[in-house]
Write a structure and sequence with these properties.
alpha+beta; 8 strands; 4-stranded antiparallel sheet; single chain; globular
Length: about 220
Amino acid sequence: MSGHSHAKNVKRTKDANAQKRSFSFAKISKNITLLAKQGSPALKTMIEKAKKENMPKDSIEKAIKRGTGELKDEVNLETFTLEAYGPEGTALIAEGITDNKNRTIAEFKMIINKYGGKPAEPGSVKWLFDKLGIIRTSYSEELELQAIDLGALDVKKENNSIIILVSLDNIDNFKDNFDISLEWVAKEYINISNKEKIDSLVKELESSEDIEQVFVNTKL
């Protein structure tokens, strides 16, 4: 019986890993398609990410061709930003890419309502955040000094890593030498009594194929 149970557990683990990998590939594919369509220099970084995730080469090529128009289909991708107030008055912003915005908004509202939150009108939450360029990489003193010289808003050392915050006005000084992600950074972080609930809410939102990033004004 134990061997039979072990075989079932192994299969369950393999299925879960395959599902997780497929989910990751779908998100990366949408990013590649949109970046290729925009002719964005960030496409190169996304392709490198796809390769690191062991995404099949033909899937990467199809995503690129879909974006450049070489591969015709009816998928029309667009970016979105959605806002909400979560439990205990937390502010929340979700960003991503979708081929059906009505479906995405409906799913977003359902998840927010499930956790006792309330979807918010555009702009009603954003004012609590700043949109910044974020660089995360291995720490070195030389890199820290370079970031300061280039005009970083802030430089934070965390163990063996460094986090560099860059204003959007100054991002061109960094983009040639660093991989930069654009993120919403809370102006102030609030303390809440039930972090597990917020954490579960964020994880469920991130489990949506359309949602790429979720930002909240509390430390998880």
